[in-house]
């Protein structure tokens, strides 16, 4: 558990499942900067609990939550994960970052706290060498955050995301070495 001023960041546990899902649903319903749409997200509480419990011993995956206070049942205000990007042995050293912050807490440093925790976690796991992520070119705040942690752009996919309204956004691929 790591208090970081704006929130407490800790590893998610099975008992967080309902609050994690509540946060995820808020993120998917209120942000145009996620790939998942609210109507596509159908994870049940039982599935989420099983997923979180399965991460406890995983060497190349982590899931953290940001909460305002370190107390049972506290509202989850941010979620972030690192997961093995590809199951092939030659790519086991690469993990992918995903994160989201509840709409009521964006712009308050929660994303910074989540990202700092996961970068520290990756550094502490020598089998992990590279963290990757995808971000929309329109997400200036996200790009600024990622660059502040040493991420660099390594690829672009013009029109890589097509929204329901027909608008197309460029996707950027970023990476950071942790070794």
Outline of the structure:
With 179 residues, the protein is α+β, with helices and mostly antiparallel strands.
Specify the overall morphology.
Answer: globular
Rg is 16 Å
| Percentage of residues in DSSP E strands | 25-35%
Q: State the distance separating the first and last CA atoms.
A: 23 Å
Level-2 CATH architecture: 3-Layer(aba) Sandwich
The largest pleated sheet is described as: 8 strands, mixed
SSE arrangement, N to C:
EEHHEEEHEHEE
Q: Assign the CATH class.
A: Alpha Beta
> What would the average pLDDT be, to the nearest integer?
93
Structural class, by secondary structure, is alpha+beta
Q: Give the total of beta strands.
A: 8
Q: Helical stretch count?
A: 4
- The CATH superfamily is known as Gcn5-related N-acetyltransferase (GNAT)
CATH fold-level topology: Aminopeptidase
Question: Mind explaining what this structure looks like?
Answer:
The chain has a single domain, classed as Aminopeptidase, CATH 3.40.630. The protein has an eight-stranded mixed sheet with strand order 1-2-3-4-5-6-8-7. The chain has 179 residues and is an alpha+beta fold. The two termini are 23 Å apart. 26% of the residues lie in helices and 32% in strands. Helix 1 packs across helix 2.
Keywords, separated by commas or semicolons:
globular, alpha+beta, 32% strand
Topology:
Blueprint: E1 2-3, E2 8-11, H1 17-30, H2 45-54, E3 62-67, E4 76-84, E5 94-101, H3 110-123, E6 130-136, H4 140-148, E7 152-162, E8 168-177
Helix pairs in contact: 1-2
């Amino acid at each position: 558990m790591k208090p970081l001023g704006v929130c407490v960041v800790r590893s998610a546990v099975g008992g967080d499942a309902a609050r994690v899902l509540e946060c995820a649903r808020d993120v998917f319903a209120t942000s145009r900067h996620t790939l998942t749409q609210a109507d596509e997200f159908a994870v049940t509480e039982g599935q989420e609990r099983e997923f979180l419990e399965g991460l406890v011993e995983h060497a190349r995956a982590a899931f953290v939550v940001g909460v305002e206070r370190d107390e049972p049942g506290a509202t989850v205000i941010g979620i972030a994960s690192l997961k093995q990007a590809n199951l092939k042995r030659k790519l086991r050293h690469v993990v992918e970052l995903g994160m989201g912050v509840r709409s009521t807490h964006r712009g308050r440093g929660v994303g910074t706290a989540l990202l700092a925790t996961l970068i520290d976690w990756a550094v502490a796991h020598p089998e992990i060498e590279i963290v990757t992520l995808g971000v929309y070119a329109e997400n200036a705040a996200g790009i600024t955050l990622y660059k502040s942690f040493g991420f660099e752009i390594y690829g672009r996919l013009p029109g890589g995301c097509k929204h329901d309204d027909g608008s197309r956004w460029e996707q950027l691929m970023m990476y950071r070495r942790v070794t």
